[in-house]
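Chain A, query sequence.
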Amino acid sequence: MLRSLVGSEMCIRDRYQRRVRGNSGSMSQSIKVWTKPETLSELRAKETALQKQLEEIQGKIKSLDQGLTVPKTTAAATLLCGATAGCCEILATMPLDVIKTRMQVTKYPSVLSCARDVVSHGGVTGLYKGMPAMLFQVGGKVGLRFTAFDQIKRLFRDDKGNVSTLNTLAAGMLAGAVEASLWTTPMERIKVVQQTNTRAGADGAKYRSLVGAGRAIVEDRGITGLYVGLVPTICRQAVSVGTRFMLYTEVRSLLAGANQPEWWHPPVAGATVGAISIVANHPFDVVKSRVQADKVPKGSSMLFVIKDAFNEGGLRAFSQGIAPRIVRVSCAQAIVFSVYDSLLEVITKFV
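Chain A, predicted structure.
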């Protein structure tokens, strides 16, 4: 009996000690929590760190959105910017275009001798012969070119809004063909007839104005007379426009590298792609000028014109006028891309 009582007392004592130890553990844990509170400065530091992380995440999301968003430009904006750039171009490069055209249809020993001949027959103003036609023609041509390219390029964009290099070339070539068919061929036909006109008296006077020259061509050869040289003009414009648009972005990226674009990148890139495009398309330009200047029989095929030019001057015939043309087009494209990019940036920002 005594042993059972002693055993019960020991069991009760053990249970009590275990309960005390458990309570002391929970108390120590509660004391531990309360003895290490986070101070206000620590909470503010955590809040600042979380805010920075949130800003970084928002910045990444914004960058992704910009990469996926295609800049929206209207056809009216591209037409206006392109036409303005074209007018600025021709005001600066008109004399070189006159010399280039003369050298392609008449043999001259040098660029300087051609310039002297032009001035001797028409004075200094002879270097600006056909200026109204050129302002109208080049302004409309460049405006139509950029508008057509912007619209056609939309068809080649992938899901992320990007256009590959080859698709850019294809869009540029199609834009060049559209430009040549709708605008460049008839306007350059009038320009070439004006620049190579050496007729005297009343017969030559009717070619002095844009409207007069156009009317005279239509009276002589019908409406199709304005489209003489259509095929070589399409070939020339497709090659040149496609090459320029394909390489322009690449050259600008190469100039910038990992840095921000500088103000001189567009003119340098424009001049570079302009020179490259001339090397690629100049033979087509020679053929076009010979056809539009009526240096070959009416209705001659493009192959006949090529053979005729080769028989007259060999392979060198297809490089006639390339020196002033490289200078003119390089300067022209430097002006065109610089003016176009600047104007389009202003319009898309404020309109």
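The two ends are 105 Å apart (CA to CA). DSSP finds twelve helices and no strands in the chain.
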